[in-house]
Amino acid sequence: MEEKVVIIGSGIAGMSSAIYLKRAGIDPLIMEKEVAGGQLHKANVIENYPGFEKISGPDLAFNIYNQVKKLDVRYLYDEVINITKEDTIIIKTKKEEIKTKYLIIATGRAPRKLNLENEERLIGKGISYCALCDGSLYKNKDVVVIGGGNSAIEDAIYLANICNKVSVIHRRNNLRAEDKLVEQLKEFPNTQIIYDNEVVEYITNEDKLTKVKLKDNREIKADGVFIAIGYEPIANMLKLENDNNYIIVDSKMHTSLPNVYAIGDAIKKDVYQLVTAANEGVIAAVDIIKHEKSNL
Ligand code: NAP
Q1: Which of 63, 82, 128, 276 has most Cβ atoms within 10 angstroms of its Cβ?
Q2: C-alpha 129 – ligand 1 centre gap (Å)
């Protein structure tokens, strides 16, 4: 298979690139290993994306996906296992080998794990990294949210509407989350925030999570634990110049290799927001369009 542009990842960044490329007459291939929309599927309510006073993440993902599909952009649902770059860029999956002139990396970030004993084994049996996806499984139950950023507080607000009790455990004595969100959370009588503490152990009964143990030896009833402690960028297969695995790009989204761009949450930057991810998608696409037009 030979392509002009391959976009790996179909979050808001990758889909924004695809819209601009396709409308300029360049036919990109989007590769996606899960579902179009990426982290959008984990956002309960979005109130800071221009044009939408309030929209759910999955709804916004669906709207953008529809827009992309109406332009007849091609999708390949497959997992990339290797990428090499010599004269051309070669992307290998289990089934395909794809050559491409340009590559846009839009692989985003994955939730950071706490990596406590038994965490892996309890995923889906009490441990979750996505309140929006799994919250309904804990209706009227007691849950713990770990973290002190916007994600943790948003998750706690979402869960407070469903669960019996929500305890937020934060390792420091002040939250990183915006005040507006914290105030919203405090309006729920079934919530508490425990500061200066950490979960050190998951306590189970017959393979089912029942409690968490804290650093100060307290035990808290927990049918579910939602871990919201930030994200790690997805592996950097091309060994591009990076900072803690976040890919370093210039103002045109060029990485350290020619014709390889990176956009969205996978790059090193100051602001990780939907609007900035979409913006980076457009910048990379326009740069490719300019190069191609100047080669005509
Ligand atoms: P974040 O802002 O990086 O916060 C991560 C939180 O987890 C911090 O409170 C951190 O503690 C804690 N943490 C990290 N590692 C930990 C560990 N090993 N054990 C215990 N606690 C740990 O991540 P985020 O909340 O996922 O947000 C990511 C980005 O998305 C941010 O820029 C955020 O503003 C944005 N976001 C925005 C919205 C919105 O605008 N509505 C919603 C969600 C996310 P410390 O504070 O001690 O470092």
Answers
A1: 128
A2: 13
Per-residue 3-state assignment (H helix, E strand, C coil) for 148-166: CCHHHHHHHHHHHCCCCEE
| Pairs from 133-141 (Cβ < 8 Å, separation ≥ 24) | 133/41, 133/42, 134/224, 134/226, 135/159, 135/162, 135/163, 135/226, 136/162, 137/224, 138/162, 138/163, 138/223, 138/224, 139/163, 140/164, 141/223, 141/224
**Whole-prediction pTM:** 0.80
Q: In the predicted model, is pLDDT for residue 296 greater than 80? A: no
Provide the percentage of residues in the chain whose pLDDT is more than 90. 85
Q: What is the 72 CA–ligand 1 centroid distance (Å)?
A: 37
Question: Which secondary structure element, helix H or strand E, spans residue 120, and what is its range?
Answer: helix 119-122
Domains of the chain and CATH, by start: 2-110+231-294 (3.50.50.60), 113-227 (3.50.50.60)
Quick: pLDDT tens for 141-199.
Answer: 999 999 999 999 999 999 999 999 999 999 999 999 999 999 999 999 999 999 999 99
In Å, how far from its chain's centre is CA 240?
A: 20
- Residue from 267, 263, 290 nearest 279 by CA: 263
- Asked if residue 28 lies in contact with residue 7, where contact means CB atoms within 8 angstroms, the answer is yes
The helix/strand/coil state of 144 is strand
Does 163 qualify as catalytic in the annotation?
no
Residue 288 Cβ < 6 Å to ligand 1: no
Site to substitute for ligand 1 among 151, 167, 225, most atoms within 8 A of C-beta: 151
User: What is the 151 CA–ligand 1 centroid distance (Å)?
Assistant: 6
